[in-house]
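Page 47, continued from p. 46.
Same chain as before, 135 aa.
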Amino acid sequence: MCLGSMTNSLKTYQGQCHCGAVQFEFSAPETVDVTDCNCSLCRMTGYEHVFVEEADLRFLSGRDQLVSYKFGTKTADHLFCGTCGIKPLYRPRSHPGAWSVNARCVDGLNVARRIGFDGQNWDESIGGLHKSLET
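Result:
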């Protein structure tokens, strides 16, 4: 299930990179929370996070097309399509064992709320993000 979303019936969403080489689907509530982060990478790429539990995401194609990029603590595994360069999802530092799906790569998301996260001050802000996603 989608982390931090309102409890309601589940829907299967499909997402992909720009060229379609990487395709995936995930189960989440009909309304989801989207987290906007201001860290350097999210700010520069316009990435919008939808956190999904690991078991609820399935690759349909292209997992082997993903190229990894790690920086800073090298904990988060940022995954870009090796063909078109889009980052459709990644393994976040903030939610070990989960996926962060790029809301911009998923059609038909019904956003319940937008949560701001001060990724420029990650260590000081992560507790607040977790609390926001619990409510």
